Amino acid sequence: MESKYYNEEKLLILKLTEEIDECTVQKIRRKADYEIERYMPRKVIFDFNSVTFMDSAGIGLIIGRYRIANMLGGTVEIANVTDSIKKVLELSGLLKIIKITELEEMAG
Amino acid sequence: MNNLNNEMKLEFLSKSSNEAFARITVAAFAAQLDPTIEELADIKTAVSEAVTNAIIHGYEEKKGIVKIRCQIINEELIIEISDNGQGIENIELAKQPLYTTKPNLERSGMGFTIMESFMDEIEIESIVGMGTKVTMKKTIKNNSETEDALQFATSCD
Ligand SMILES: Nc1ncnc2c1ncn2[C@@H]1O[C@H](COP(=O)(O)OP(=O)(O)OP(=O)(O)O)[C@@H](O)[C@H]1O
Ligand SMILES: [Mg+2]
Q: What is the CATH number of the domain that holds A56?
């Protein structure tokens, strides 16, 4: 996972770079929490552009970060999901509380 | 022709680092049925759910063997995933969306719901103290236009 913080917008972009399952989610969770607690962003965007696979471990990941970001006064959004990942998100009901947003390929 | 029948078995230690290998292997086996990209993604996700359950609920911290048996009968893919772990006390309850016995580990209780909706059929057999076997079935209609999914398929016989 790569992260980038935009101070002016208080925007934290977390760019996921691997398949998301039980095996990989623990490391992602630790890093994401560290970044969210450090910056206390107004908005966190998970960029799924390089993610080719996600199972229910990803649902827990996003809900967990949503709770933490919320507690610190921020929101969570998701960008660049494939159809199959969207199917998993839809089924879980997550899209009722978390928005899929447009995200241009940011520099860096 | 796609109504060739086939079978494979896979056994591995209950480590979550084996999940990617397990779902990719099943997907590679399924490729001979000419699935669409979407069908292949559905199969991978369902396998990942059942394998994760065997590892984190069936065996918990202990180490055990997860077994997968895949069959192709005509146009149907049958996947059995089993463990010799602790078993499920109440299967009907376990199948409910959002039901989880591990909320503290950020599980969402969506595994069985995903398996049910991504596959055509799912059957769960479990005996407490003995283990769990999940059998999932999916019919793959022959769609000859999906060239990309053919990359693993072989037709040497
Ligand atoms: N192989 C298994 N052995 C023992 N218990 C199991 C097994 N598979 C599932 N269970 C039980 O069934 C419950 C529901 O499983 P399900 O996969 O739907 O949700 P989860 O694994 O808790 O969460 P998620 O899959 O969303 O991360 C689990 O919490 C667990 O108690
Ligand atoms: Mg599960």
A: 3.30.750.24
